[in-house]
């Protein structure tokens, strides 16, 4: 098994260190600002394009139900299998993401997803649709680990919450653009909802090839301040100062707060994907709105989510001194209120439904964005992608409920029962964030204290 891992790491080996540009602190700071902006923009555009070839199914589902006569339960099963495989992929690829070239790894996953979307769009049989969408789940799991790698290597722990919150807008940008676009083109043919996003994502893959760097050392810059040293060997492999298995055990699996946040993420993702995946169907089939209108309303959920992410990052850094779990607790309390309103407010007009969806998106995406920040700082950049992969495994295990579960419950018991369960799950997420109230901002300082302790 170890030889297989090393073989994969060799294929995706990081860029070797480049000669240092300068030792002048002013020039180093200037170069860092340039490359940090470039990393942030490129990773946002890159990850947004993963949503082009992932969340396009949500807006095409009503048309597929009508034209292919596929049941909501079947489509829910596609969402669940895709989500579970995505979670496993994100978890497994997190181990590789900590040791591989971020650019190559991200482009490979995006191109695989492009091919699978084309194959999905060419299919009509339920079995092939299911197979291609499950495989797409694996390809999608290669998107976030390289982003976690570059963000934790390029930004200091004390600014990571703000920067990662900005980066997390990529989720809503990608999903928002694609639900609006597909809301129009699927009225001509549902297959265009897969071919057009695939073409757009292919173009982004070419952009990433020339825009996204790997480690700061690969462009001739020193290690970012406030983090531990990572050695890059002549072969290009990243070698921490300790065995990677030991780092994983100490930094990830032995940290109780990472497990608490992982369980919290499970419930956050139930709410997030229950709304994102099913709101076009709820709004068009249950509330009688047009599909184009439903696409814009769902996009409103994503757009308000962007504001929620950005505000959550600023609040975490400036109010709670980087303790993002505390911000998550307050956001989830209001998320519970928003879900309750979407469930119980009677006679919802399009405007009212849009406002409630926007409120739900604002308070759902704050915690969704900060989960990665919390575990990245707790695990340090030595194991950031692995820790994020663990939370992703929990997050996308939730699609058993948000995908197949909602499809089954809505088919057999109606939407009222579905909303009841969503409200309960939102409360559960709130309780887990409350358990993480005492979590530290990061463990970099703890590492330094340990390293300076005298030998006994």
Provide key terms for this protein.
1% strand, mainly alpha, 456 residues, single chain
Would you give an account of this structure?
The chain is mainly alpha-helical. It has one domain (2-13, 33-212, 251-442): Up-down Bundle (Growth Hormone, Chain: A). It is built from 19 helices and two strands. The protein has helices at residues 2-11, 25-52, 56-68, 72-97, 102-121, 126-140, 144-154, 160-167, 169-185, 192-211, 244-253, 256-286, 291-318, 324-344, 350-379, 384-397, 399-412, 415-435, 444-452, and strands at residues 231-232, 238-239. A hairpin with a 5-residue loop joins strand 1 (231-232) and strand 2. Helix 12 crosses helix 16. The radius of gyration is 22 Å and the shape is globular.
Topology overview:
Elements: H1 2-11, H2 25-52, H3 56-68, H4 72-97, H5 102-121, H6 126-140, H7 144-154, H8 160-167, H9 169-185, H10 192-211, E1 231-232, E2 238-239, H11 244-253, H12 256-286, H13 291-318, H14 324-344, H15 350-379, H16 384-397, H17 399-412, H18 415-435, H19 444-452
Helix pairs in contact: 2-7, 2-9, 2-10, 3-9, 3-12, 4-6, 4-7, 4-16, 4-17, 5-6, 5-7, 5-10, 7-16, 8-13, 8-15, 9-13, 12-13, 12-15, 12-16, 12-17, 12-18, 13-14, 13-15, 14-15, 14-18, 15-16, 17-18
Provide a quick synopsis of the model.
This protein is mostly helical and 456 residues long.
């Amino acid at each position: 098994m170890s030889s297989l891992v090393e073989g994969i790491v060799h294929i995706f080996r990081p860029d070797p260190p480049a000669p240092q540009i300068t030792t002048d602190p002013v020039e180093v700071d200037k170069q860092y600002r340039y490359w940090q902006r470039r990393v942030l923009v490129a990773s946002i555009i890159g990850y947004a394009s993963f949503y082009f070839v992932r969340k396009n199914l949500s807006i095409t589902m009503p048309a597929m139900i009508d034209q292919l006569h596929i049941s909501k339960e079947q489509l829910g099963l596609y969402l669940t299998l895709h989500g579970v495989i995505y979670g496993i992929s994100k978890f497994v690829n997190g181990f590789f993401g900590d040791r591989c070239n971020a650019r190559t790894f991200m482009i490979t996953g995006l191109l695989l997803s492009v091919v699978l979307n084309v194959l999905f769009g060419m299919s009509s049989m339920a079995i092939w649709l299911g197979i291609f969408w499950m495989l797409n789940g694996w390809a999608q799991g290669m998107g976030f680990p390289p982003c976690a790698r570059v963000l934790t290597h390029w930004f200091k722990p004390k600014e990571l919450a703000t920067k990662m919150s900005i980066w997390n807008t990529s989720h809503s940008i990608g999903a928002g653009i694609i639900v609006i676009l597909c809301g129009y083109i699927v009225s001509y043919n549902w297959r265009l909802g897969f071919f057009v996003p695939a073409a757009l994502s292919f173009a982004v893959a070419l952009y990433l090839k020339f825009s996204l760097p790997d480690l700061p050392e690969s462009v001739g810059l020193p290690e970012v301040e406030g983090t531990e040293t990572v050695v890059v060997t002549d072969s290009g492999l990243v070698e921490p100062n300790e065995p990677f298995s030991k780092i994983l055990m100490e930094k990830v699996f032995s940290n109780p707060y990472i497990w608490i946040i992982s369980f919290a993420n499970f419930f956050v993702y139930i709410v997030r994907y229950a709304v994102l995946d099913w709101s076009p169907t709820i709004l068009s089939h249950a509330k009688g709105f047009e599909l184009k209108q439903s696409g814009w309303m769902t996009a409103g959920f994503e757009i308000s989510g962007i504001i929620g992410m950005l505000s959550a990052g600023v609040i975490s850094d400036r109010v709670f001194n980087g303790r993002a779990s505390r911000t998550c607790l307050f956001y989830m309390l209001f998320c519970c209120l928003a879900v309750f309103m979407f469930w119980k407010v009677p006679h919802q007009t399009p405007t009212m439904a849009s406002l409630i969806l926007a409120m739900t998106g604002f308070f759902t995406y704050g915690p969704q964005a900060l989960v990665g920040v919390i575990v990245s700082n707790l695990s340090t950049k030595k194991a950031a992608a692995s820790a994020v992969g663990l939370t992703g495994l929990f997050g996308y295990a939730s699609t058993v409920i948000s995908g197949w579960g909602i499809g089954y419950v809505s088919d057999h018991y109606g939407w009222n029962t579905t909303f009841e369960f969503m409200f309960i799950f939102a409360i559960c997420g709130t309780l887990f964030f409350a358990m993480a109230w005492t979590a530290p901002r990061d463990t970099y300082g703890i590492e330094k204290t340990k390293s300076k302790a005298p030998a006994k």
